[in-house]
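The instructor's notes for this session suggest beginning with a concrete chain rather than abstract definitions. Hand out the sequence below and ask the class to guess, before any prediction is shown, which regions might be ordered.
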Amino acid sequence: MPDDEGAGDVGAVRQRGDYFVQSLERGLAVIKAFTAEEPELTLSDIARRTGMTRAAARRFVLTLVDLGYVGTTDRRFHLRPTVLELGYTYLSLLSFPQVATPHLTALSERLNETTSVAVLDGDDIVYVARVGPRRVISSGLTVGTRLPAFVTSHGRVQLAALPDDRLDAYLTRARLEPRTARTTTDPVKLRDRLLEVRAQGFALVDQELEEGVTSIAVPVRDASGTVVASVNVGSQARRLTPAALRRAALEPLRETAHQIERDIALLGVRTTPPGQF
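After discussion, reveal the predicted structure:
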């Protein structure tokens, strides 16, 4: 039977099915009343924000206090860390692509360019998330696409992060086959370029993968500082020269990488193994 205490509060004006538990809605409304800007609220504040009577708000708040979700100091209330339990199961199920995609979307909208995240798998990179504007680059890359690491900005920034012995082993075995007339296929020159990438912290590849396509990438690190992925921006060369792409995209890319790093550390998310997107 619906609880009619606090008539006029949130939910009271909406038609609900017989299954609807209004008390649950009101309890959640109390939790959502707290914000980062106002983490402490009085009982009157909570009543006003939820649309409840003060008496109804008091019952719900004190119930949450008893359950350990809300604390109180000097007649002001605040959320306790226990409230994180309510969202932990969902957050723990988030995959690396799910965490990265909102940040890629924001970056793509900011630059009006295609953005992506990829991981290194053997001698290839694998795209795990990709977001682009309606103006699509013709390469047709999608989530799950594999490309030789040496010829992409994603690959170069992750190869550059390898220890010297693993990098040398890669350069010894890798088949450096050209994709365009600009592709670097000399292992000595490629090693020099990778060392430059290591020093500067980003990789810019100008039409080596595909004629007319330029991209720039920065590393994504886990909580230990190990490079586990990369994020990049790709553009049409006729729109942006390499220098212009660097000026426009490098700092936003670094900001995006830091946001992704923050989230995977906070949520304990691991990078997705290739083939499990």
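Then share the key points. Residues 100 and 260 are 6 Å apart (CA to CA). Residues 242-267 form the longest helix (26 residues).
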